[in-house]
Amino acid sequence: MAETTTAPAPAPIPAHVPGERVIDFDVFSPPGSQADYFGAWLALLDGPDLVWTTANGGHWIAAGGSTVRGIWEDAARFSNEALAVTPGLGEVMEFIPLQQDAPEHKPFRSAVMKGFAHQHIVATEPLVRGETVRLIEAMRPHGHCDFMAEFAEILPVHTFLSVIGVPPEDRVRLRPLGRQLTRPDGTMTVVELRDAADAYLEPYIRERLASPGPDLFSRILSVPIEGRAWTFEEAQRMCRNLLFGGLDTVVAMLGNVMMHLARHPAQQERLRQDPGLIPDAADELMRRYPTVAVTRNCVETCEIDGVTVERGDLVYLPSVLHNLDPRSFDAPETVDFARKLTQVRHSTMGAGPHRCVGAALARMEVIVVIEEWLARMPAFTLAEDARPTFRAGNVGALDQLALAWQA
């Protein structure tokens, strides 16, 4: 998904796009997003539910909650094959199962979900808790930290690499690849990014195919695909998919959760006094701070929000514009630990047949981090004069988050 450092000229506006739906909006750099990522996106709620931008080759943006959610769930008319608004990305990455449509998608998705079965998530919790405690105990005497660099960039990647059975210390080598996919800076082409991931994964994939172990990749590759074994190419595409999926989203999520608690000492204290609230609080915080956006390509010309979406058009779906639309949730910007999310499902983890396969693992990580941080750290705040900064992209994330406490 690499972008050039010099912005390309705006793409021509297709004839079927009404002029009043065209806006100046680059999803990789929304105006003001560095200081206020969520506010930058929420500005789109003031207009139509579907708008067109000429940035990044030209594409639609779903800008209303029901439209975001509706297209996300509409696998019949909107495919995930294109993967992103960057031209050519889908053809290069060829992720399994993320870029597959029915019926091809089902057996591969089923195999992956078996790898993420509940008993495996439960078995991973001691690993997550142990690493969380280690990182907290190392930071606590200092009285301050950059939460992103010293915790969020470490724990989820350490966890994922441990789960797939590769050396956790390879985080230093692999973490930049995750950033390049979701928040490209132009230093790598898409082909270079794919090839770097494949070069790293290949020996592990061949080993797992020949002699499966207890790791996540082995569990998935041990599940036959409609009665036959996985081919190497299929295994490579699946492992590539999961590697990129495991390198960035939880990093971003943890940063936003901790930023909120630092800014809201009363809610922080409430969770300290009643840890039983933490699972519901984790769900609500994940709803309140969604940063993932996906792209769907239209495979059947249709009308949405009063305009024609033609076959081949790309539609960008920001989860923030579903979760924080007042038409989707009451007082959506308010964090309410008693909110009953079973009534309206949020879109932080996606929706429909491509909902995030690692959602349960991510949720468990967030819960464990909140539990251990509040049990072991004194009250904490944003450091004096701290200004959290964001970088937008297909996964928006904090660049830095300075926290402070009494050591």
TrEMBL record:
CDD domains: P450cam-like. GO terms for molecular function: heme binding; iron ion binding; monooxygenase activity; oxidoreductase activity, acting on paired donors, with incorporation or reduction of molecular oxygen. It holds the Pfam family p450. Belongs to the cytochrome P450 family. This is Cytochrome P450. The lineage of its organism: Bacteria, Pseudomonadati, Pseudomonadota, Alphaproteobacteria, Sphingomonadales.
